[in-house]
């Protein structure tokens, strides 16, 4: 052994000896079972103890990095605690935001008289309903499809959330995993973005909402805010969009389909198309299956619905269409609602109102068809210049109630005609005003001589029917000519026939003017005015000008004229015209929409006598074209100077209808002559207006019983029934100031004078004070249905000259 090797061996022995001594000091010598000493376990050098022994000491390799079970459990508990704390902090810090205004935006829905939907007006197709309006079984359609544990869960579904997170982790889209409460929160308070932060906020708010709102409130909000396709927001709009019925009439089967649309509205909205129906049928079956699975349908009920087949949705219809007559109908109904409730225009436009009208869908179509048929048969604007710009306005009223059942306002908003001709003043009524003269004479008599009491008048009383006669007032003075103060008024007829003294009945039948102008002066302006007001006309439409007032310078709307003639039809009882029967908001009815009660406007004997005279107009007078109706009818024709307007107003016991025809160029203010229109050199109310009336009334009354009018009552003997008048003449024939109101200088066309309100004058016709004879009423338009602010007086000559309405 070399000296180097010996040195290394000695050093190794010294090291072994030192280790043995150290082991002996630490714990003594270890011995094995055989009594021989064994090596002590390796120990790490002593050092500072760690709070968390990780990586683990005393372990080599991979084992150093594998946590012990204690460490694993501790880590899990720590994570859970941290997560719970974070959730608690988030729950405490998150507040329920304000409701998204867009979820409150609704449409107003208008309904026909049969309850079917007429129109929807608003930016959003939504009408919120109360949960009580949704059938219970339909509610469970949605719960079964979306959240069967709705009534027991806290508002969130942990399994659904984990499932959504799993799909997101797999690279798919962020899914909802949402309960109905969460969907309600998303629709009502949040945006529709699919992000984790928005999802987390949705969960927190859902937990809070579940403590603030009842389950019924949440479900109601969910049904009203969900999107169902076809532009429909909310279950009421969806019910109308897919099945054209209100939500109350939904069946379980239909509800199952609507519940399916919430998940995939863009896919299922066209389920009415056979080629796109398969996904809808599959989803519908799934919902019915879920209903059965949770015990809300029996197996037999499920099989019944499956055998009945898929409830195919109705074809999509245009929402909110205001074409044709619908725009005019909606406008009238809106005006009526505002006048008969506390709603302002702004409040009504916020939407959410269900407005049920008196308009009969079939009758509206029949009236439009009759106008179209007349135009097709008589008018040819492409080849005859006279036929251009001819307009028609018409209205039909139930005389026993005042309900407006149909109207024709023009060609439609979709054709650029926005003025409602049925509800606008401005077209003089001509001789159709004469029945009010006769009714006033029957009620008040006539002062034929100065200082004498009124004499009784009957339809057989005779007056001078010749052309170009002078007219006296009650003081026995001749009326001056308004255009020539130095001359006398010479009232004219349409023709120069020498009628002599004829009965008022004959004068009505042949539409002779002079007897009725003289009758009106003898009866008195105020008596005639009040008779017209009580019958239903508005003071704002009465023209306070010359003696032409008695033969039709006034300009009521067709609605008002149909209603006033309805007073005759209902034996003297006037029913204020109305267009709305019921208004609902959030399922609750608004007050103020009971049908107006009838009021006695004139004795039944007066009304029935006028009806008897107007029957004669139809049977053997100027209105014989109306005989084509084939049932008892009463009516009157009317035409004004230069044929600027032509009317026919007629009624049966069941229906009163007024038709007006006039001509007005676009952008102009004033009526134009209709001479030459339809190939007629002279256009009378007996012609085209009567054709429209007959066509409509024939269709509207089809299937209705033929009812007779009551027999004319016996009135006794009236004055002048046997010949010329006997009263002594006035002491002086010189002109004197007339008590007839001064001429009105106002002129207006129908398009310039739309109705300024709804039904009703500024004051009740029966109580409002009459203006003095020297005054011409001024001020704003008063009332609805033709309360225009004046109208064209129909005269070719200077204001104040006698008007000569024809028939």
TrEMBL record:
Residues 115-291 form the Glycosyl transferase family domain. Residues 780-792 have a biased composition (Gly residues). Its EC number is 2.4.-.-. Residues 743-754 have a biased composition (Low complexity). It is an enzyme of class 2 (transferase). Pfam families: Transgly (PF00912), Transpeptidase (PF00905). Residues 1-54, 447-468, 712-807 are annotated as: Disordered. Keywords: Carboxypeptidase, Glycosyltransferase, Hydrolase, Membrane, Multifunctional enzyme, Protease, Transferase, Transmembrane, Transmembrane helix. Residues 726-742 have a biased composition (Pro residues). The chain crosses the membrane at residues 73-94. It catalyses: Preferential cleavage: (Ac)2-L-Lys-D-Ala-|-D-Ala. Also transpeptidation of peptidyl-alanyl moieties that are N-acyl substituents of D-alanine; [GlcNAc-(1->4)-Mur2Ac(oyl-L-Ala-gamma-D-Glu-L-Lys-D-Ala-D-Ala)](n)-di-trans,octa-cis-undecaprenyl diphosphate + beta-D-GlcNAc-(1->4)-Mur2Ac(oyl-L-Ala-gamma-D-Glu-L-Lys-D-Ala-D-Ala)-di-trans,octa-cis-undecaprenyl diphosphate = [GlcNAc-(1->4)-Mur2Ac(oyl-L-Ala-gamma-D-Glu-L-Lys-D-Ala-D-Ala)](n+1)-di-trans,octa-cis-undecaprenyl diphosphate + di-trans,octa-cis-undecaprenyl diphosphate + H(+). Coiled coil: none annotated. Residues 396-659 form the Penicillin-binding protein transpeptidase domain. InterPro entries: Beta-lactam/transpept-like (IPR012338), Glyco_trans_51 (IPR001264), Glycosyltr_51/Transpeptidase (IPR050396), Lysozyme-like_dom_sf (IPR023346), PBP_transglycosylase (IPR036950), PCN-bd_Tpept (IPR001460). GO terms for molecular function: glycosyltransferase activity. This is Transglycosylase domain-containing protein. It comes from Streptomyces bullii.
